[in-house]
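Researcher: Structure for this, please.
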Amino acid sequence: FGNKDNFRGWSHLSLDLDSLCWKRCYEDDRGDDVPAFPYCNYFTACDELYKIGSTPSAPALCLYRFDDTTNQWIKIHQSRPSGNRLKVSEMSITVSGSRVYMIGSIEACEDFGCYLREVTVFELKPTLVDHSMAVLLRNETNREVAKRMLPKQITYGLMRD
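Model: Predicted structure, token format:
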């Protein structure tokens, strides 16, 4: 990924067998994998795969969603860059249906070690699979089957999309 100057060496993906998470790493002088972003973990919520990362161009936190149809990571949210330093290690992300809640800390006063909590709520952009499911649910028979088979939050989200 990127060029050598970003991470002291070429970065690559490495599978952490303890947590079964993929991490973006670079090789140190001894050839060991060192996480480029120690906080950049992949996680699963509502059977969807997400990851947290930051952009090299701006000190902003980004949330990505994996799209199965294109096999690509899609950036679904980027926090606005600010003068305040975001404490990513204290970031909490909850995905409920198509809504994402991000709760983080921002360093408000560096001299006194004061932190403010920042809450961001946003809607996920539907993927191609979401669109196709929504088309299927427009059929009356499929809608009745979905009401009986799918969890309510998934059905409501698909019908709304």
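Researcher: Any notable elements?
Model: The longest helix spans residues 128-137. The CA atoms of residues 27 and 33 lie 5 Å apart.
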